[in-house]
Design a protein that fits this description.
Number of domains: 3
Number of helices: 9
Shape: rod-shaped
Low-confidence stretches: 221-234
Distance between the termini: 175 Å
Number of strands: 0
Strand content: under 5%
Order of helices and strands: HHHHHHHHH
């Protein structure tokens, strides 16, 4: 019985040895194994795991020490500025920031003032325009009432009954008295042929002013001149 047991053990051992030899031969023939790899495998198993970990830690520590030495050398070559210098630089930066903020505040204030002035100018211009419009409407209404009154028509007939030289003299007197608008109203209401003869007797600069006022009067009133009863008066 014991002999049979040893025989089985021996047979199993021989089988494993043969298998190992066959596996090794397969590795060698398959170009997967040579003496260099065998030596590398021996080196792996020659050192314990603990020793290997210690070696790795030692190499890592050496790298860290080398990096620390390089950092120290760089710091020694370019030392940081003294605290006073850094504080001075910080103060200068703060001053520059304050100057920039103050400049922005001033520019903002200037823009606000400019905008306020522009708005005030617009309001003043709008108010002036409204006043001019009101004055225009008042003057137009006054002209219509004046030129439409019976007394105006009666005076107009009398002026048209005068000779051009006489009418011009009367109108010149009214102009000298500051009643140019009244003269323009009469000339505007006359027939163009009659008013042209009278205007032609004024000095050129006065005649030009009267013609321009008559033109503006037509724009202001928005109506045609009043027809004269003496359309054919020379």
């Amino acid at each position: 019985m014991l002999k049979a047991f040893f025989l089985a053990i021996s047979t199993l051992a021989i089988a494993h040895i043969l298998a190992l030899v066959g596996f090794t031969a397969w590795l060698y023939q398959g170009d997967r194994l040579n003496m260099a790899r065998i030596d590398a495998i021996r080196d792996i198993f020659r050192q314990t795991i603990t020793a290997e970990n210690a070696q790795v830690a030692k190499e890592a520590k050496a790298v860290e020490d080398q990096q620390a030495a390089a950092d120290a050398a760089a710091l020694e070559a370019n030392p940081p500025a003294p605290v006073e210098t850094r504080m001075g630089l910080i103060g200068e930066l703060d001053d520059l920031n304050l100057v920039a903020v103050e400049r922005l505040r001033k520019e903002s204030g200037d823009l606000s003032d400019t905008l306020a002035r522009q708005l005030a100018d617009i309001d003043a211009a709008a108010k002036a325009l409204e006043e001019e419009k009101a004055e225009f409407l008042r003057l137009r209404e006054e002209i219509r009432r004046t030129e439409g009154s019976a007394q105006f028509k009666k005076a107009l007939q009398r002026y048209e009954g005068l000779k051009p030289a006489e009418a011009q003299a009367v109108f010149q007197t009214l102009i000298d008295q500051g009643q140019t608008d009244q003269v323009v109203s009469y000339l505007n209401a006359m027939q163009p042929r009659t008013s042209a003869k009278i205007i032609g007797r004024f000095p050129p600069e006065v005649a030009a002013d009267l013609l321009e006022r008559i033109r503006q009067r037509g724009v202001e009133t928005g109506s045609a001149p009043v027809a004269s009863a003496d359309a054919n008066q020379p």
